[in-house]
């Protein structure tokens, strides 16, 4: 909507991305390591929550399930960033996105959209997951146009 | 229902250091700047610093996001003998306007008589603008930081885009916030940005996080601001005309929650400032309506969030904030409710919201540089950020 031609949206370089886990988020990242997109679902009432936390905010149960999701999503909003977040990496264009995950109503993921001109990304667009290798052998879900 | 503490307490004094471009306050120390602001606030009020017996901070007593003050250290440095109250609102700049409510609690509970609120910011080690990307993320933040949303401006741009998508808000609206505040800063000696700004210059500003350009981002500055709250009765015996605390609220709903650090907000909260529950409470506490507000000091870390706050406080309908500001409604000259008459954080200085309270005090004493004629009620808001968000209505003493 700014009329600027940014060019193709890049992935954030995985060798610069760190994550940490805790008891409640670890299963999500272990599934990601196997390229399986999941979300934290209450084992009692079925409510989805992301990021994963120790209690269901709906019924306060601590039972959790990690269903395999279709790996598709809808863009809810996004930004187009033009500066490198890392001092040792030259500037590049990347598109952080907030997506609603298919198969997990109410669960959102903050990720990146890659592989298409940044200026052509739209809210409501369907996207599909791919995987970015990051530090310490973890994998990060990112998305391309479905 | 009228607030039980309405007009019972007052801001009696305000003080500030010079404002510096980011890093330029070095080699001054953060405690030195905090001390200077407190001493100036005491001098302004006409009290001795030793009379201070309470501290009501916001932002968890963090000064910016790298430094923190400690009440005991400030007592040691300034010679304050005893305190009866020392507490802070949690989280960050969201509580900036709610700290006067905390000070009121201290005074009305008879824990303290002269309560200081202070904020300082110094950015010579780490820029606040990149603070979220500087280290390995927590498990919670591991769901945000890897996306490269590392600065507050990145995060806010995602909310701004949703607002534009839902309501057709134009960049011209953000430009009007920036340009109107710049006009207000032009005659202020302490303002960092004073040059006139045209719409063409706005649109030529580099996009840092589309849809937000550099001029939509607030300044990165150093400095400190403090104010003294006491009972209205005591304040009337001091040097300055008291500025009454007419209403004050902090808090917010889970649907806003951690806000742009979470990104899970449903519509319409996502494209909002999270301030609607605060606005609703302030109007209820005071019996006032937005049209009663003479001057609004709206937290402006990013221009787009001013538009959304104006909606959430009811100056216009939800979704109509863009049209509202584009109509000229927020201008000092000719606007229906002048906004950020000091130039705000976009043009004057950014001390995590504290400059807004300073300006409200000057407006209600009738001594502001861009004085709103006969100003009686000022609205001050804290930052749209992780809860709590906050607001207060200050009143001229009759």
TrEMBL record, chain A:
Pfam families: OB_ChsH2_C, zf-ChsH2
Matches recorded under Gene3D superfamilies: 6.10.30.10
Span of domain ChsH2 C-terminal OB-fold: 66-131
Domain of life: Bacteria
InterPro entries: ChsH2_C (IPR002878), ChsH2_Znr (IPR022002), NA-bd_OB-fold (IPR012340), Thioester_dehydratase-like (IPR052513)
Coiled-coil positions: none
Domain (ChsH2 rubredoxin-like zinc ribbon): residue spans on this chain: 29-64
PANTHER family documented for this protein: BLR3430 PROTEIN
Stated name of the protein: Acyl dehydratase
Organism of derivation: Hyphomonas oceanitis SCH89
Automatic annotation (TrEMBL), chain B:
Name of the protein in its database record: Thiolase
PANTHER family for this protein: ACETYL-COA C-ACETYLTRANSFERASE, NON-SPECIFIC LIPID-TRANSFER PROTEIN-LIKE 2
InterPro entries recorded: Thiolase, Thiolase-like, Thiolase_C_2
Superkingdom of origin: Bacteria
Transmembrane regions: none
Gene Ontology MF annotations: acetyl-CoA C-acyltransferase activity
Pfam families: Thiolase_C_1
Domain Thiolase C-terminal: 269-382
């Amino acid at each position: 909507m700014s009329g600027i031609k940014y060019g193709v949206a890049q992935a954030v370089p995985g060798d610069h991305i760190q994550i940490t886990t805790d008891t409640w988020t670890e299963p999500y990242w272990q599934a990601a390591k196997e390229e399986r997109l999941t979300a934290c679902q209450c084992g009692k009432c079925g409510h989805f929550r992301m990021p994963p936390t120790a209690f269901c905010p709906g019924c306060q149960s601590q039972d959790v399930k990690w269903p395999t999701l279709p790996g598709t999503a809808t863009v809810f909003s996004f930004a187009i960033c033009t500066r490198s977040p890392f001092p040792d990496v030259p500037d590049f264009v990347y598109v952080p996105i907030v997506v609603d995950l298919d198969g997990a109503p109410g669960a959102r993921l903050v990720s990146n959209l890659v592989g298409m001109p940044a200026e052509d990304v739209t809210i409501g667009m369907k996207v599909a997951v791919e995987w970015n290798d990051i530090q310490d052998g973890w994998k990060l879900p990112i998305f391309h146009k479905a | 229902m009228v607030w039980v503490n309405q007009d019972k307490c007052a801001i009696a004094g305000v003080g500030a250091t010079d404002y510096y471009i980011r890093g330029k306050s070095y080699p001054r120390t953060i405690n030195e700047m905090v001390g200077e602001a407190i001493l100036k606030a005491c001098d302004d009020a006409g009290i001795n610093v030793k009379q201070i017996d309470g501290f009501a901070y916001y932002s968890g007593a963090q000064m910016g996001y790298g430094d923190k003050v400690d009440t005991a250290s400030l007592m040691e440095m300034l010679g304050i003998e005893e305190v009866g109250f020392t507490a802070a609102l949690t989280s960050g700049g969201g509580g900036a306007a709610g700290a006067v409510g905390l000070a009121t609690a201290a005074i009305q509970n008879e824990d303290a008589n002269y309560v200081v609120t202070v904020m300082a910011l110094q950015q010579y080690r780490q820029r606040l603008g990149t603070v979220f990307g500087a280290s390995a993320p927590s498990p919670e933040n591991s769901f945000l930081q890897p996306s490269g949303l590392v600065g507050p401006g990145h995060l806010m741009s995602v909310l701004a885009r949703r607002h534009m998508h839902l309501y057709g808000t134009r960049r011209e609206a953000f430009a009007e916030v920036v340009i109107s505040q710049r006009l207000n800063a032009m005659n202020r000696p302490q303002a960092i940005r004073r040059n006139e700004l045209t719409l063409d210059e706005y649109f030529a500003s580099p996009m840092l996080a589309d849809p937000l350009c550099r001029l939509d981002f607030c300044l990165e500055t150093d400095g400190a601001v403090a104010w003294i709250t006491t009972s209205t009765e005591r304040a009337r015996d001091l040097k300055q005309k008291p500025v009454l605390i007419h209403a004050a609220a902090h808090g917010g709903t889970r649907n806003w929650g951690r806000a742009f650090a979470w990104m899970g907000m449903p519509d319409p909260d996502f494209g909002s400032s999270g301030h609607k529950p605060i606005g609703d409470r302030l109007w209820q506490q005071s019996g006032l309506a937005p049209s009663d507000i003479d001057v609004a000091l709206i937290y402006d870390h990013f221009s787009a969030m001013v538009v959304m706050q104006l909606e959430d406080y009811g100056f216009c309908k939800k979704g109509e904030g863009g049209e509202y500001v584009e109509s000229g409604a927020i201008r000092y000259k000719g606007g229906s409710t002048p906004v950020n008459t000091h130039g705000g954080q976009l043009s004057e200085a950014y001390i995590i919201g504290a400059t807004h309270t300073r300006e409200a005090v000057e407006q209600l004493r009738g001594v502001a540089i861009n004085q709103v004629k006969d100003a009686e009620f000022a609205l001050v808001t804290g930052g749209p950020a992780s809860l709590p968000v906050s607001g207060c209505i200050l009143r001229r003493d009759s």
